[in-house]
Input
Amino acid sequence: MQAWVYEEYGPSEVLQLRELEKPVPAADELLVRVHAASVNPFDWHMLTGTPYLVRMQGGLRGPKDGRVGVDYAGTVEAVGADVTRFQPGDQVFGGRDGAFGEYVTPREAGAVAKEPANVSFEQAATVGIAGLTALQGLRDKGRLQPGEKVLINGASGGVGTWAVQLAKWLGAEVTAVCSTGNVDAARELGADRVIDYTQEDFTRSAGEHDLMLDIPGNRTWSECVRVLKEDGRLVLVSGPKTNRWVGPLGHMVSMRVASFRGGREAKPFVAKLNGDDLPLFAELMAAGTLTPAIDRRYELHEVPAALAYVGEGHARAKVVVSVG
Ligand SMILES: NC(=O)c1ccc[n+]([C@@H]2O[C@H](COP(=O)([O-])OP(=O)(O)OC[C@H]3O[C@@H](n4cnc5c(N)ncnc54)[C@H](OP(=O)(O)O)[C@@H]3O)[C@@H](O)[C@H]2O)c1
Output
C-alpha cells in the first residue's frame, strides 16, 4: 500500500510517499481501506515535532511511528477475530494513526463508527479530531445549556466551523469571531452574530456570555473576562505557539491560574479521540443538522502541500485529502 511516512521531524519536505506492507488487523482491529482523510494542526505538530512537548507522544529522538494523518473515512476490508460490530463492506469513519495512507487499522473500541449512506467519504473524514474537540469543548467541558449565550473565537477553522453548528444544535445563542473573509460563511453556518476581529475588538464590543470557546487562545485573561458573565466559563482549546517547549500549554495553564482569583472559570482542555460520539455525528450529518464545512481538497500525492497549508494557521474549515 502507499502511505506517507517521515523518519525525522521537520517541514513537509521530510515526508516520503512509500510502498509499505498492507497491515494485518489484530483480533480487536478492523482493516479499513481509506478513501478520504482530513488534515488537522495536530498532524503538523507531529510532523514538525513542535512544540517539543509533542515528542513525549511522538518519540523523543525521532518519530517512533513515522506514519502521518489521523482522520479517515473508508470501507472495512477485513475484521479481526474478536470484532463483532463491524463487517467487511461497512463504510466507516473516525481517527487512527496513518490516515494519509491507503489502509488504517482502528480498534473496534477506538474511534470508529458506521458512516451514513447519504454522507460522502470526504464529509465523514472531516469529523475526527476537530468535530470531537468542538463537541466535547462545548457540551462536556463547557456544559453549554439551551438558551445560553456562547462566544466562539476562531469560528472559521476546523474546530470552529463544527463548534458554531453544534452550539446551535445544543440550543445556544452564538456569537462567532473570525476574519473578514469568513464572516458570511460563519453566518451561513448558523451564527446569530458575527464579529470580524480585524475590524473590532470583540472583547470590548461583544457583551457578556455564559461560555467562551477560545480556539486560537490569543487573548489575555482580563480581556476574556469582559465577554463572560460573572459565573461564566472559558474553555481553552489552544494558545499562542510562541513557546517552542510547551507551545499553547503555557498560556492555557496561566489562564487557569489567573481564573482562581474570581468567579469566572478558565478550563484548559484536550479532546479525547474515541468512538463514543461518532454515532451522534453520523446521525446529525445524515439528518442534515450538521453539514461538514470543507475549504480545500487535495489528492494523496499532494499531502505535503495540504499539511503546509494547514500549518500556516489560516485554513477556512476543513482540508480534505482524497486517498482513492
Ligand atoms: N485542545 C485540543 O484537544 C485541540 C484539538 C484540536 C485542535 N486544537 C488546536 O486548536 C487550534 C485550532 O484547530 P483547528 O483545527 O480549528 O485549526 P485550523 O482549521 O487550522 O483553524 C485555523 C483558523 O483559525 C483562525 N484564526 C487564526 N488566527 C485567529 C485569530 N487571531 N482570531 C480568530 N481566529 C483566528 C483562522 O481564521 P482567519 O484566517 O480568519 O484568522 C482559521 O480559520 C489549533 O491550534 C489546534 O492545534 C486543540
Remarks:
- The chain is about 25% helix and 25% strand.
